[in-house]
Amino acid sequence: MSISRPIRKVVFPAAGLGTRILPATAVLPKELLPIVDKPIIQYGVEEAVASGLSQIVLVNSPGKRILEDHFGPHAALDALLARRGKSALLGGLRELTAGIELSTAFQDEPLGLGHAVLVSRGRVGDEPFAVVLSDDVIDADPPALAQMLAVFARVDGPVLLVERVPREAVGRYGVIAGDALGDGVHSVIDLVEKPAPEDAPSDLAIIGRYLLTPDIYPALAQTARGLGGEIQLTDGLRRLLAQRPIFAVELDGVRHDAGNKPGYLRAILHFAGKHPELRRELPGPTGGVVPEAR
Ligand code: G1P
Description:
By secondary structure, the chain is α/β, with parallel strands linked by helices. It has a single domain (9-281), classed as Spore Coat Polysaccharide Biosynthesis Protein SpsA, Chain A (Alpha-Beta Complex). Helices cover 27% and strands 24% of the residues. It has helices spanning 40-50, 66-70, 75-83, 93-99, 113-118, 121-124, 144-152, 216-221, 233-241, 261-273, and strands spanning 9-13, 34-35, 38-39, 55-60, 101-106, 129-132, 136-139, 159-164, 174-182, 185-193, 204-212, 247-250, 254-257. The longest helix has 13 residues, at 261-273. The chain is globular, with a radius of gyration of 19 Å. The mean pLDDT is 92. The structure holds 1-O-phosphono-alpha-D-glucopyranose. 1-O-phosphono-alpha-D-glucopyranose is lined by residues 113, 133, 136, 173-174, 193, 205-208, 232-234, 257.
């Protein structure tokens, strides 16, 4: 049984440069690129809210205030749409915006995911919290964060979301070694950031969702720059693992990495395939959702 306090806050690191989808991201933050009719980050915020987490901490770079603008208020647009009887066009954005509490922490330099989490410390304080990497777009029922929260309530420690990936793809992820505890839950024994396939401890990749305890902050503060000269969250977790147990749970759902071109295309096809107006526009007998190459 967990003795942790309940999780209320979700950190969204969003200060990255989006280099894998240039030139689209030269001006527009990658988090605002649309998947069908909603920007990437909105899927993550909706997942958080659907999982009962409504305090959003955006880790942003000073030049990307447009990201906060998306979450409103949109008084002039609201009023115009209301006058025309077209409020439904906002597709739930107004309700979403009204239901969240948004705060921002700034990451002035792109020093890595671990550093992005570290700068959220002042906003999060001394309580457990979630981290969502919004370019991992997940379609799951119950939502991915809710699946993790159910595990967090049973164990005493951080919970990472993992998925089995092809061996040749492990180098794109943090990879865990774990002891299977049943029901897709693993006790983490080790974790390594972006290993070569021959060095990977398993095929269980961390996929952009973390439930963390506040002791990650001092661990990250002591973590030296690692791969790419950046402070890696995986390295901070590895340091924390020396002090406390850490757990991982396998996702029951579908995930697309919308932070690169093929994954972004697959995410669009996936959600278009579920969209009542668009699915018949797609190729293939069922309005073909293109499966990820395995
Ligand atoms: C980051 C993390 C990595 C994790 C991945 C999930 O890498 O560093 O451990 O597996 O997100 O998407 P990035 O995709 O930012 O290179």
